[in-house]
């Protein structure tokens, strides 16, 4: 029942996004997110956060923002969005792992580099400005194996702790809870036990599902959700929140 209600809500938000897209406000590329209901739920959730960030704003001078995810047509999507004749100004990649392929994208589509909003680098600048020096990154297995966040954040003098391979299964469970929109009653204790293995107090939510999970935990604790979640003595940073701030600052 819970999943059905959430999915129905996603379709209602999709209609709103499409109407705003027609007005030149926001293009979410909903039809091009093709790899499972869970990923769609997270993408819709992010789109709604984008709209809620500035509820009274209606237009960005006709310029458009497009979001695409890491899927089988990723290169084709970026090529079509960055090609000549398009009204797209910025390309947003909600999937953190997709940033790993950007060097290959830029070699094939050089014009894409000026349009892609690199969420991890934006986060790096934000963290450095806040004086953060050490973070724990929880992300999808592929991003951890390739040390995507570690290598990017190193450019901003930020040391990154990554869960080891034996923790990947537990990370996948947390991600699947969000994809299924079904959460165990002991979710808070399980997630807290996972975090206690690490000493870092600043945590980067490096997978699209984790901001959804954190808001579930924070709201379930009767505390208001915020862009930087504060939970059980730790601060949680969502790269896509920084992207939202960037877009509104640069598209006004």
Structure in a nutshell:
With 252 residues, the protein is of the alpha/beta class.
Please report the distance between the alpha carbons of the first and last residues. 40 Å
Overall tally of domains: 2
Low-confidence stretches: 1-38, 56-63
- The share of residues in helices is 40-55%
Query: What is the ordering of alpha helices and beta strands?
Result: HHEHEHEHEHHEHHEHEEH
The shape is: globular
Structural class based on helices, strands and sheet pairing: alpha/beta
Major beta-sheet overview: 5 strands, mixed
Spatial order of the strands forming the largest sheet = 5-4-6-8-7
CA radius of gyration: 18 Å
Number of helices, counting only DSSP H or I runs of 4 residues or more? 11
Structure summary, number of beta strands = 8
Strand composition percent: 5-15%
Oligomer: single chain
What is the mean pLDDT? 75
């Amino acid at each position: 029942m819970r999943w059905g209600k959430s999915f129905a809500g996603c379709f209602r938000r999709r209609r709103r996004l499409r109407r705003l897209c027609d007005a030149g406000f926001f293009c979410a590329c909903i039809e091009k997110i093709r790899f499972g209901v869970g990923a769609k739920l997270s993408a819709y959730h992010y789109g709604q956060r984008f709209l809620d960030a500035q509820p009274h704003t209606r237009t960005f001078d006709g310029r458009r923002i497009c979001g695409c995810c890491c899927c089988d047509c990723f290169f084709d999507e970026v090529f079509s969005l960055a090609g000549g004749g398009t009204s797209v100004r910025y390309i947003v990649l909600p999937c953190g792992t997709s940033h790993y392929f950007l060097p290959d994208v830029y070699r094939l589509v050089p014009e894409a580099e000026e349009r892609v909003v690199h969420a991890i680098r934006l986060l790096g600048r934000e963290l450095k400005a806040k004086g953060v020096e050490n973070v724990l990154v929880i992300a999808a297995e592929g991003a951890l194996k390739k040390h995507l966040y570690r290598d990017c954040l190193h450019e901003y003098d930020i040391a990154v702790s990554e869960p080891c391979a034996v923790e990947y299964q537990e990370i996948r469970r947390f991600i699947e809870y969000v994809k299924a929109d079904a959460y165990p009653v002991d979710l808070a204790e399980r997630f807290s036990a996972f975090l206690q293995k690490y000493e870092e107090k600043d945590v980067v939510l490096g997978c699209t599902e984790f901001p959804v999970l954190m808001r579930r935990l924070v709201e379930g604790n009767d505390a208001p959700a915020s862009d930087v979640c504060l939970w059980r003595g730790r601060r949680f940073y969502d790269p896509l929140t920084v992207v939202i701030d960037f877009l509104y600052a640069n598209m006004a």
